[in-house]
Amino acid sequence: MDLNGKALSDVIKEEIAREVLELTSKGLRPPHLVAILVGEDGASKTYVKNKENACKKVGFNSTVMRFAADTTEEDLLREIAAINENDQIDGLIVQLPLPAHISEPRVTHAIDPSKDVDGFHDVNIGKLTKGEDTFISATPYGILQLLDRNGIETSGKHCVVVGRSNIVGRPMSILMSRNDNPGNATVTLTHSRTRDLASYTRMADILIVALGRPEFVTADMVRPGAVVIDVGITRVDAQNEKGYVLKGDVAYEEVKEVASWITPVPGGVGPMTIIGLMQNTLKAYKQKLANRTA
Ligand code: NDP
Asked: Which residues lie across from 32 on neighbouring strands?
């Protein structure tokens, strides 16, 4: 059965919009998310546009700051410092990847952790690792909610994660192993050096795939009845208007015949990632409000 991220994201968007309306009807300003976009990368532009649209839907203020591809790191850091100081801004994200002459770690660390709604700052990653309250990065946060809101039990299950990136695979493996719900799974984290990958994926009760290779996971790699979460999004050339189609890392048509639950691409993890970002922005806003009234 499909784990429908699009439908769940619509439900949660309504919940957030209701909460924002309650806040603004008390005379408070709405939450405000700023996205920084450097350069002209097509996929990045689409992602930022989707985030902007989601902000509108839930009633947030949103600002997109666009910088030319040859912007210096110094200029970018100066802008981030100004945003950190701006009390009217609750959340800041810098769309990755950045041009090669700009250091991603330096930029990520320049963001005030209390506005780091992508959850990429070391402070927030540290808190996540220790199981403390923090901004869980948007994709893993969205996946947790897909599991939770569909009543999928994770406790005691074997979760196999394919891919160990800092934004998806690794945090996902930490979250699934924490003593919480969802969580309490026994986790195996696999990557490109894993020998005989299929022998691990076939052991998974919950298989989370984030490697960026279209239709890499085939039906013979999946245990019958497994829950399959497909994070991958790759543009594959096609003879249509756009000139491409989006493909996941899982061969959906064949794997859906063996899996109990599976996320489609598009319409699975993607919309839930945006929801994770909206929820983190609301959280940042509420934390600021609480600090001001404390
Ligand atoms: P990265 O490229 O940062 O990481 C890919 C990971 O996959 C690496 O750890 C790599 O291993 C591993 N890997 C590569 N080849 C193999 C292999 N043959 N067998 C096992 N492991 C392998 O990717 P991301 O995590 O950033 O993204 C993964 C995919 O998810 C992409 O398609 C991306 O577009 C998509 N994505 C989707 C999001 C959404 O909202 N739906 C959000 C973020 C990403 P090693 O470390 O050894 O190199």
From this structure: 61
**Residue 269's closest CA among 173, 148, 140, 176?**
140
Which structural domains are found in the chain, ordered by start? 27-112 (3.40.50.10860), 138-269 (3.40.50.720)
What is the structure's pLDDT at 51? Answer: 96
Which of 95, 115, 116, 256 is catalytic? The answer is 95
Contact present, 272 and 146 (Cβ < 8 Å): yes
In the DSSP assignment, the letter for residue 255 is: H
| Residues 6+ away with beta carbon under 8 Å from 153 | none
* pTM for the predicted model, two decimal places: 0.96
| Residue 88 annotated to the active site | no
- The tens digit of pLDDT for each residue in 225-241 reads 999 999 999 999 999 99
Residue having the nearest C-alpha atom to atom 25 of ligand 1: 165
Which atom of ligand 1 has the smallest separation from the CA of 193?
47
Answer whether residue 294 shows pLDDT above 90: no
Residue 234, token pair as written in the block: 């790759």
- Burial code (b: 16+ CB inside 10 Å, e: under 16) for 79-90 equals bbeebeeeeebb
Can the peptide bond before residue 97 be classed as cis, meaning omega within 30 degrees of 0?
yes
Distance 165 CA to ligand 1 centre (A): 6
Closest CA to 229 of 275, 169, 276: 169
* Average pLDDT of the chain, as a whole number: 97
Atom of ligand 1 nearest to the CA of 43: 34
